[in-house]
């Protein structure tokens, strides 16, 4: 790991891209408009970036469609596409420090998290996905001797990806890698709060050999560029990661336009169940990571803690001690465990929820939101609020910040009922030394992912996604290809 000084030296050499990447080149927005990319640790403007809207999206879609129709990528043999994507993975590896710095500077995540999580996961996603694409076969259906039914998977066409800012590179990779591997043309609209690493990704993709028009990054706001992409008549698939509110809007846009397929990875309010027979030390350490890692700006953050009432006091003491390890600081310092929140709006949201928790009877055990001083960054302390229950606003709604609600339960049935009493169903964790209880409870939890005696562990080989208002479809694993391919049945009469 590089030292603080080394990261600062690298930062001073960094060059930012400011145009949208359309048809293989950086271009300004047609309107000439820009928006600022801001460092949330210092509030300084890093660079002004092209603020694209409908006109730019139209141009990007027409290039993406032309590239798809030409077959330059869509008809390339899977093995050849694999080689290009593997080359891209290599380039990502060669530029790992630069990419880590770009996300840290723009959204505030600590550089040590970038190095340990986002960068290796992104590279692995491109590598693994590339390696898969020449190993997935079609099927022959068991129709009978007079017919031959060939079932194949074909690329869909033009895929629009709309992504959030909390893991800028990684969230984009989970969509872009399988969409490209399957042979589609892709238009990525990253969050306006985190564009810089994605513009660099586009440049590296070109260097790796992805043909012009096949991978485009259109920068802009959600209500302009994002909405235009979602409403476009010539986009076949929309793959989204972001809030449940916007996810619902995208379903509406698809219905209003061409019924494009919409895949949604949306919000969460994950429960963490700690049973009395759990390893309380491990559970407390991990409960802190599960809500304070990445400043709590994690879709699977376990923001609702349910602990068996009989061990609550003992557990909470361990939890508070573990939480103190997370202290806000300069995210460029490798020793920093928590960076700033992404912007002032997110800081205000967190402050509002903490106030509402106190008004509704919560007791602050740790942290709170200090008065913000302009120019000093959007930092928040790790915050733990006791006396919480499912009727409170801050327990029901996603905060997307480092705020943990501590609730209790008396029985296993009650724990399951409380965990499922949410509009969301993304992640969940449970802690027990009983194998039977682990199976019994995980079967009944309404969530796309259940972690037993751990939290957040992932692998490119396993699917990631949720149920209920947390979305549909899955990122990662072979299941990701289902989003970006159409199933075709060719039925041939033989006699
Ligand atoms: P957001 O919904 O505000 O924005 C996500 C993306 O949608 C951005 O690119 C934004 O510009 C775009 N957008 C906004 N309005 C739009 C519109 N009207 N039309 C089209 N696009 C529009 O979410 P965010 O603040 O960037 O990210 C935080 C949210 O993302 C949280 O709710 C978090 O739980 C969720 N998230 C989910 C997962 C998952 O895998 N389920 C992963 C990471 C983050």
UniProtKB/TrEMBL annotation:
<comment type="similarity">
    <text>Belongs to the aldehyde dehydrogenase family.</text>
</comment>
<dbReference type="GO" id="GO:0004030">
    <property type="term" value="F:aldehyde dehydrogenase [NAD(P)+] activity"/>
</dbReference>
<dbReference type="InterPro" id="IPR016160">
    <property type="entry name" value="Ald_DH_CS_CYS"/>
</dbReference>
<dbReference type="InterPro" id="IPR029510">
    <property type="entry name" value="Ald_DH_CS_GLU"/>
</dbReference>
<keyword id="KW-0560">Oxidoreductase</keyword>
<feature type="domain" description="Aldehyde dehydrogenase">
    <location>
        <begin position="29"/>
        <end position="490"/>
    </location>
</feature>
<dbReference type="InterPro" id="IPR016163">
    <property type="entry name" value="Ald_DH_C"/>
</dbReference>
<dbReference type="InterPro" id="IPR016161">
    <property type="entry name" value="Ald_DH/histidinol_DH"/>
</dbReference>
<dbReference type="Pfam" id="PF00171">
    <property type="entry name" value="Aldedh"/>
</dbReference>
<protein>
    <submittedName>
        <fullName>Aldehyde dehydrogenase</fullName>
    </submittedName>
</protein>
<dbReference type="InterPro" id="IPR015590">
    <property type="entry name" value="Aldehyde_DH_dom"/>
</dbReference>
<dbReference type="InterPro" id="IPR016162">
    <property type="entry name" value="Ald_DH_N"/>
</dbReference>
<feature type="active site">
    <location>
        <position position="265"/>
    </location>
</feature>
């Amino acid at each position: 790991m590089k030292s603080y000084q080394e990261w600062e030296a690298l930062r001073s050499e960094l060059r930012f891209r400011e145009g949208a990447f359309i048809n293989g080149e950086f271009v300004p927005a047609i309107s000439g408009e820009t928006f600022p990319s801001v460092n949330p640790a210092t509030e300084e403007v890093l660079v002004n970036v092209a603020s694209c809207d409908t006109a730019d999206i139209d141009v990007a879609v027409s290039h993406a469609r032309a590239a798809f129709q030409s077959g330059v990528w869509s008809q390339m043999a899977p093995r050849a596409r694999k080689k290009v994507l593997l080359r891209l993975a290599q380039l990502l590896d060669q530029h790992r420090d630069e990419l880590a710095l770009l996300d840290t500077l723009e959204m505030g995540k600590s550089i040590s998290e970038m190095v340990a999580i986002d960068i290796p996961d992104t590279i692995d996603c491109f590598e693994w996905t590339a390696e898969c694409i020449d190993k997935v076969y079609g099927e022959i259906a068991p129709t009978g001797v007079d017919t031959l039914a060939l079932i194949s998977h074909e690329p869909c066409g033009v895929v629009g990806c709309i992504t959030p800012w909390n893991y800028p590179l990684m969230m984009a990779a989970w969509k872009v890698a399988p969409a490209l591997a399957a042979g589609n043309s892709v238009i990525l609209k990253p969050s306006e709060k985190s564009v810089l690493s994605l513009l660099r990704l586009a440049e590296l993709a070109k260097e790796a050999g992805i043909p012009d028009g096949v991978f485009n990054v259109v920068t802009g706001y959600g209500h302009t560029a994002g909405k235009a992409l979602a409403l476009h008549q010539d986009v076949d698939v929309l793959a989204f990661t972001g809030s449940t509110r916007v996810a619902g809007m995208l379903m509406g846009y698809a219905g209003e336009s061409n019924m494009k397929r919409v895949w949604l990875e949306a919000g969460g309010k994950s429960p963490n169940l700690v049973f009395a027979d759990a390893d309380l030390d491990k559970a407390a350490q991990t409960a802190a990571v599960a809500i304070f890692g990445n400043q709590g700006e994690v879709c699977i953050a376990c923001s609702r803690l349910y602990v068996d009432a009989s061990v609550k006091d003992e557990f909470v003491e361990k939890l508070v001690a573990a939480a103190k390890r997370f202290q806000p600081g300069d995210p460029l310092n490798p020793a920093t465990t928590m960076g700033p929140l992404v912007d002032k709006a997110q800081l205000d949201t967190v402050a509002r929820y903490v106030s509402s928790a106190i008004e509704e009877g919560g007791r602050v055990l740790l942290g709170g939101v200090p008065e913000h001083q302009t120019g000093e960054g959007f930092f928040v302390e790790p915050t733990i609020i006791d006396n919480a229950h499912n009727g409170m606003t801050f327990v029901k709604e996603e905060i997307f910040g480092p705020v943990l609600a501590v609730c209790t339960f008396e029985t296993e049935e009650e724990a399951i009922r409380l965990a499922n009493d949410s509009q969301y169903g993304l992640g969940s964790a449970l802690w027990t030394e009983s194998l039977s209880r682990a199976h019994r409870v995980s079967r009944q939890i309404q969530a796309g992912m259940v972690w037993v005696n751990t939290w957040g562990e992932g692998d490119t080989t396993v699917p990631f996604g949720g149920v209920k208002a947390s979305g549909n479809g899955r990122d990662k694993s072979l299941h990701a290809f289902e989003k970006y391919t159409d199933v075709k049945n060719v039925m041939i009469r033989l006699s």
